[in-house]
From TrEMBL:
One GO MF term: DNA-binding transcription factor activity
Transcription listed as a keyword: yes
All residue ranges annotated as the HTH tetR-type domain in the record: 15-73
InterPro entries named among the record's database cross-references: Homeodomain-like_sf, HTH-type_TetR-like_transc_reg, HTH_TetR, Tet_transcr_reg_TetR-rel_C_sf
Keywords of the record: DNA-binding, Transcription, Transcription regulation
Superkingdom: Bacteria
Originating species: Nonomuraea deserti
The protein's name in its UniProt record: TetR/AcrR family transcriptional regulator
UniProt cross-references to SUPFAM superfamilies, sorted A to Z: Homeodomain-like (SSF46689), Tetracyclin repressor-like, C-terminal domain (SSF48498)
Record-annotated DNA-binding residue ranges: 36-55
Length: 192
């Protein structure tokens, strides 16, 4: 039986390997949604057996990378000041959200190809909740339209953000100014 310090060292090594693999997967998949697990293992500096020892399938690895990106995004978005006028708060939220979405668009594409659609939506529950609360507040303040249901407006914002990111990645929309276009488009939808 291994000594407690040897087990602790192995556990610490495993945790470092997992962190390196997830970080490499997030970076690699954010550049190319078709990045192979072999490429990710190489970028992480681990062997295939080590990668598959922690992530049995590509879907498991992609989900871990997406969860890591969502955690980082949530840290950024939860620190935003969304108080006061809902229209101005929405502008701040959209600017920060755009940066996160633009960075993770390819990763989301990878996730949508290997994860069930319901799982991708589940993982986005917190950003959707934050957006819904702000839209409801804007409706109560009379600055956002109230003739459409809040869940539908949240979906429209989601589609605009991710659609713009796809257009930038495809080269059909310039990256400079995209944030402003997203904000104008969303505010137009929300104010009717």
């Amino acid at each position: 039986m291994a000594a407690p310090s040897a087990r602790s060292r192995r556990r610490a090594d495993a945790e470092r390997n997992i962190a390196r693999i997830v970080s490499a997967a997030r970076a690699s998949l954010s550049s190319d949604p078709n990045t192979t697990t072999d490429d990710i293992a190489q970028a992480a500096g681990v062997g295939r057996m080590t990668l598959y020892g922690h992530f049995r399938t590509r879907a498991d690895l992609v989900e871990a990378a997406l969860m890591d990106a969502l955690r980082a995004g949530d840290e950024t978005l939860s620190s935003l000041d969304l108080t006061g006028d809902a229209h101005e708060a929405m502008t701040r939220l959209l600017a920060s959200s755009w940066e996160i979405v633009a960075e993770s668009a390819a990763l989301l594409t990878a996730a949508e190809t290997v994860l069930p659609a319901g799982r991708v939506r589940e993982l986005h529950a917190e950003p959707a909740r934050r957006m819904a609360e702000l839209i409801r507040r804007g409706q109560e303040q009379g600055v956002f339209r109230a003739d459409l249901p809040t869940p539908w407006l949240v979906s429209l914002v989601h589609y605009i953000l991710h659609g713009a990111a796809s257009e930038v990645r495809a080269g059909r929309l310039p990256s400079h100014g995209a944030s402003d276009m997203v904000t104008k488009s969303v505010q137009s939808v929300l104010t009717g």
